[in-house]
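Escalation from tier 1.

The customer reports that the assembly of four entities below gives different structure tokens on two consecutive runs. Tier 1 could not reproduce it. I'm attaching the input and our single run for tier 2 to review.
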Amino acid sequence: MATSGPRRAASGAVGAKAGATRTALVAATIEALQEVGFGGASAREIARRAGCNQSLVFYHFGSVTELLLAALDDVSARRLAAYRDVLAAASTLVDLIDSARVIFSEDLDAGHVAVLVEMITGAQAVPGLGAQVSERLAPWREFAETAVRRALAGSPVEALLPAREVAHGVMAGFLGLELLANLDGDRAAALALFDRARMIASLLDLVGPAALLPGEQP
Amino acid sequence: MATSGPRRAASGAVGAKAGATRTALVAATIEALQEVGFGGASAREIARRAGCNQSLVFYHFGSVTELLLAALDDVSARRLAAYRDVLAAASTLVDLIDSARVIFSEDLDAGHVAVLVEMITGAQAVPGLGAQVSERLAPWREFAETAVRRALAGSPVEALLPAREVAHGVMAGFLGLELLANLDGDRAAALALFDRARMIASLLDLVGPAALLPGEQP
DNA sequence: GTCTATACTTGGATAGAC
DNA sequence: GTCTATCCAAGTATAGAC
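Tier 1 run:
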């Protein structure tokens, strides 16, 4: 099912006003998920942040749940694009981890992964939402697998580590690190792990350099 | 601050009835956190599951938030004891991972880690709750560090991997795997990672057997 | 200790004026 | 398209009977 737009009356096209409001609502939802979590992201709270009336949530998105999913789609698409760029530019394991560290930090600052985490955990409260969130994780699973596959290509540990399995672990690790970093407002422990991984990666790059194909991005 | 019991009137000791109700409420809270999440764990929902009146939540615990923390304490204490037993019995890396796999599976079945994850993520919605949940994570951090330190003792990679850092990663990994397993009701990906870790651990056990001191548990 | 009843608040959602 | 006004459901918390 496509993004259910406003069931608009006779008028045909979506006006500039409507677009602006939709955009503001999505942005406000992202902000709300980050600051007050899934439970606090009510129609009223979101509308307040967007500077508009509560009823517009229902006019434009039909329900709060749909708006939450729209926000997840928005942040997910934008971050996936950023991650893809990074992956395309990295040609060694060390490159990859350096970039991953930068992006992880960016995500933490901007609360991007927090949105995903809130949606994953909050989904339990709303029947049927879990499946919809899970669907939206699919492109991330695929991306993570590609990244891991390229990172391990030509490495001495390639045979030991199936990309699909490792990718699942990487995703879990990112989510878990985000969870902990947000809980106690301290990202140092997470960043230290990236530094450690970088050190090990530099060893692996020496032993068996990853055979990365530059500019292979779809 | 100690567990704030019921501000009981003139009567001195806590009766058997009160103890039973408190126990039932805590159990019901754990169940609710697992099945309907932080957002759904209301006083009414919890009381319904406990088979008592909603007002007893406030009589015995003062507020819903306090009851949630009591439930977290309960499950945390019981699981930590189980984990300690396992750690004490493991004498090789492979032992450790085998046991970790069993316990991870148990936790998933019983929803123990789910309670923790719900509290971590739900904490954002309630001001001040985050810090209280973070405090309750301290024994887990300490436990994880001890486990990792013992697991790596005498291993060839010991110098490369500081226990404190790795422990943080292990915790993040557990939380993330739990998150994903609960989301799409599929633990196969997580279990595959345990199997893979076991394989690698068996190699490490061969190269440099971990110098574990049996029965060193506090 | 436990219940019923109730006051108060907040949130989802809709109707209708503009 | 946006707002005001409103209904209804659900939640927290307390008072008071038993």
